């Protein structure tokens, strides 16, 4: 398999479609990921697309504020746990960290869900997962909006394709060598198919609320993937601050098992077709992933059509 494509539908015009292509990298990690993706497509596994950090389209801060409060209200209908905080439309990292801490308590880990999660109704479980996803989406939107005012060419937007039913594959040793903090515009990376935060995320979020056991370096892959419409390479001073942060927590920045950064598996096939802002606008307005396709030598070898509307399922 040498290419992946997404068929995207406009949020206002159901007859307006675009198909965007990515070239799959030629290395063992990308080959394993492509096989896992094909298996998921063949088995019609459930994919949950999330658009984060796009400033064009319907998913603005007001929408996400309402969605997060609905998740909180649903959780508070149960008898096992109450959340007193409310989203008020003005985002802050402190509020985001508090909400994520509630999520850690409520959910537990992928391997060992909390007793609260196990005893909750399906509706409350869905709302618990929503705490995590909506909070991260609000973070991405705020950071994109803040950055576009000063560095319009460098802000981040992402499509996160979570494969909730997918097979989890433990990393072979060679995968650890491919993690890098530097990212390319439009590149596809392995999805973080775990509950918690990486060391890099804890550093960026200045998260003092997180439980130590919730810091979880990337260690498994599935057919899921993240696409970053942004480019980043940490300045030397940021890298030095991160190194000091890790040392203060007993970690070594050169330990490859920390999986610092992201593992690329594919690249946008024609990045120069549009400007970066044009790409973000095109993708942001075509915010329904209609179909995932895998190609080999120009032929479709596997495809999966996604539901017409997923709604508020997390």
| Integer-rounded radius of gyration | 19 Å
The computed structural class is alpha+beta
Order of helices and strands: EEHEHHHHEEHEEHEEHEHEE
Termini, distance in Å?
30 Å
Structural domain count? 1
Beta-strand residue percentage: 15-25%
Q: Kindly report the average pLDDT value.
A: 89
Question: Number of DSSP strands?
Answer: 12
**Percent range for helical residues?**
25-40%
**Helical segment tally?**
9
Biggest sheet character: 10 strands, antiparallel
Overview of the structural elements:
The protein is of the alpha+beta class and 314 residues long. It has one domain. 36% of the residues lie in helices and 21% in strands. Strands 1, 2, 3, 4, 6, 7, 9, 10, 11 and 12 form a 10-stranded antiparallel beta sheet that branches. Strands 5-8 form a two-stranded antiparallel ribbon. A hairpin with a 7-residue loop joins strand 1 and strand 2. Helix 3 packs antiparallel against helix 5 (122-148). The model has no long low-confidence stretch (mean pLDDT 89).
């Amino acid at each position: 398999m040498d290419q992946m494509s997404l068929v995207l539908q406009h949020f206002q015009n159901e007859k307006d479609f675009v198909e965007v292509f990515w070239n799959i990298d030629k290395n063992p990690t990308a080959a394993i990921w492509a096989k896992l993706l094909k298996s998921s497509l063949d088995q019609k596994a459930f994919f949950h697309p999330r658009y984060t950090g796009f400033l064009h389209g319907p998913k603005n801060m007001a929408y996400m504020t309402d969605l997060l409060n609905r998740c909180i209200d649903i959780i508070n209908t149960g008898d096992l746990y109450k959340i007193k905080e409310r989203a008020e439309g003005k985002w802050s990292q402190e509020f985001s960290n508090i909400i994520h801490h509630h999520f850690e308590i409520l959910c537990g880990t992928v391997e060992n869900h909390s007793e609260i999660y196990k005893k909750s109704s399906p509706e409350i479980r869905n709302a618990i997962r929503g705490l995590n996803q909506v909070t991260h989406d609000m973070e991405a939107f705020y950071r994109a909006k803040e950055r576009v005012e000063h560095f319009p060419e460098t802000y981040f937007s992402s499509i996160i394709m979570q494969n909730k039913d997918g097979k989890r594959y433990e990393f072979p040793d060679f995968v650890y060598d491919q993690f890098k903090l530097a990212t390319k515009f439009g590149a596809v990376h392995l999805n973080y198919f775990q509950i918690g935060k990486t060391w890099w995320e804890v550093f960026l979020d200045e998260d003092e609320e997180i439980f130590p056991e919730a810091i979880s370096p990337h260690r498994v892959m599935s057919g899921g993937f993240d696409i970053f419409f942004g480019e980043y390479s940490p300045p030397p001073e940021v890298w030095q601050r991160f190194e000091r942060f890790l040392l203060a927590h007993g970690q070594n920045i050169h330990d490859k098992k920390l999986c610092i950064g992201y593992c690329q598996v594919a690249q946008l096939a024609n990045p120069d077709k549009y400007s970066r802002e044009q790409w973000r606008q095109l993708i942001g307005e075509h915010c329904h992933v209609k179909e995932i396709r895998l190609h080999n030598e120009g032929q479709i070898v596997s495809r999966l059509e996604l539901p017409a509307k997923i709604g508020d399922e997390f």
